[in-house]
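User: Small ask, check this?
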Amino acid sequence: MVYELSILNIIILFGAIQGFLLGLILVTTKRLKKRSNYFLAILICSLALMNFLSIMEMRPDGTRTVFSMYHPFFIVNLIPPALYFFIRYLTNPSYQWKSTDYLFFLPVILEVGLRLFKFSFFAKGTQLSESALGSINFWLNSLELFAAIFSVVVILLVVKSLKKYEQNLRENYSEVETRSLTWLRNILLVGLALSFLWIIITISDYGIIPFNLTLAQLSLMALSLMIYWIGYSMIIRQELLETPIFAISNSQDQSPTETSELSTNTDNYYKQLKDLMSINKLYQNESLNMTVLSEKTGLSNSYLSQIINQKEGKNFFDFVNGYRIEEVKEKIIDPKFEHYTILAIAQEAGFKSKSTFNIFFKKTTGKTPSEYRKLNK
């Protein structure tokens, strides 16, 4: 086995090592033990193993070593289901496993079976015929191509589900920054590009197009950087993995007066809701969410959401933060609050995040808070 120790290979190798360490942390740290994290560990370790084995088996001239022909460890079909179930349990921790979910792992079983069958001959010192070895390699390569294509499909499905998830957040929470999955979407976009490169590289094994060593190495380096990125995200946003903050309340309980359509008492409920916001100033609660509002009104989350959507033409996020912005607008031009910082006023109005406040204020008024205060003095 020939291994070229270069800067590029060192980056790839350290990316693989970090991947293994991250996976180990996820499955051994008590506070991180959740189903979503188990699948994240499988995903990271599968990517790390792909990198490690690819580097160890590849000669500088682009040919493969005997090790690459017989080792049984390169289980690439674990990557798509691991990604799918990581996102599934991350956005819905109470997800119940279905019998059809086992179908995701059928390619894994086929790949493991073929690789073990091939390795058994190598372990016994028996040499396979050229035609038999070629046939097994063809099916293994086909399974790898399937994994690459399936990864593209899964990423597209996951991005779609994350978009729906973001919409659900705004229907249930008045502050969504700490629950944002932008970092994950960015990683998935990188993963999508790498999956297309993976397809191209795998097709080259059929001899249809020439194998490009540089392209393969750059893909592995990008994969290493993605592993670094995941690790960095874990370090700076550990709360995303430690607590079930992604759970969206989907209670189906309905109040006795509620129907699938807005009832004749809707106007009364709407007035009650407006009073809670304008008179009781419930919006000043920085942790206000649909569940809290549901407890205050005695109405279900879904019915409240329906009232807000139809009566206000807004989602819950815009509805609550609209009240907060109005309070801020009044106070920042009120002489009694001229010694208060804008941030202090925003926090008193219920804003938990400075960036959320700034973005929403600019969206609502067309001006930054400082500009608004100067223009209205």
Summary: DSSP finds 16 helices and no strands in the chain. Residues 243-260 have pLDDT under 50 and may be disordered. Residues 130-172 form the longest helix (43 residues). Residues 121 and 127 are 6 Å apart (CA to CA).
